[in-house]
Amino acid sequence: MIIGGSKKAVIENIQQNVAAENYNDKVEVNDATLTLAESSQVIATYQKRLQSPNYTINNWLARALMTCTTAVINRRTDIVGLENLQGLKQGAIVTSNHFNPLENTVVRQALHQRPDGNKRLYVVSQVTNMLAKGVVGYLLKYADTIPIGGDKEYMGREFPKHLQHLLAANNFILIYPEQEMWFNYRKPRPPKRGAYYYAAKFQAPIVSCFVEIIDLPKADNTEFNQTSYRMHILKTIFPDENKSVRDNSIVMMQQDYAQKKAAYEQAYGQPLNYQFTTNDIAGWHG
């Protein structure tokens, strides 16, 4: 599903970042920018909203709407590797490739297939996304989204405390280690260490995922064909209790990237490299 207008400038930014080996940089255009004070205010509003008497009702409605949206978007989604989630009863951090504003629904669809599929999924998102309007804005505000950004007090104390509480309650938390979204980009990008640091710090496993994007022979708009998804649930990665938080986070990050790389190579039948081709952008007419 194409959200927004032409992606020509976005794809040009992807090409430039690939050439410069800046695999985690922003490529979207016209995204909101906030000062530190503005970012902190959005965070404060988010924290106040969580304590509002109306939050529980809106949260229930937003989650119900998200469940319906997930079912519609993923009516053609294939899921492989569910056996890798067998026996996983504790809270976990989920990682996946970041290529579409709605691809978190693919993760939701996959996790719903578990025997205890009602377990909640929280999604970590850039604080600027909390400014979205309309239905998308409503979902971001109320459908279990956790903003990242703001001042050091929030990121150093409140954010990790929130993650720890959710993991202790056996919830899943989706963190995109690639950081920025690259629209319809097929390849897994080298991850940043944040997701793995929190997994190591709180002794939580990593549910490693890779979404394969499949071109369909039907136009979506003048630039893209429609696509469908195949979710690959990979081997769950557990921290080693004998390693330090830093060493654990590095080892878990390296294993997760290796698994995503192997999944890409198996799915597309070619070795992973970062030389840009038109086929790197799924569905693109080029």
UniProtKB/TrEMBL annotation:
<dbReference type="InterPro" id="IPR002123">
    <property type="entry name" value="Plipid/glycerol_acylTrfase"/>
</dbReference>
<dbReference type="Pfam" id="PF01553">
    <property type="entry name" value="Acyltransferase"/>
</dbReference>
<dbReference type="GO" id="GO:0016746">
    <property type="term" value="F:acyltransferase activity"/>
</dbReference>
<keyword id="KW-0012">Acyltransferase</keyword>
<keyword id="KW-0808">Transferase</keyword>
<feature type="domain" description="Phospholipid/glycerol acyltransferase">
    <location>
        <begin position="92"/>
        <end position="214"/>
    </location>
</feature>
<protein>
    <submittedName>
        <fullName>Lysophospholipid acyltransferase family protein</fullName>
    </submittedName>
</protein>
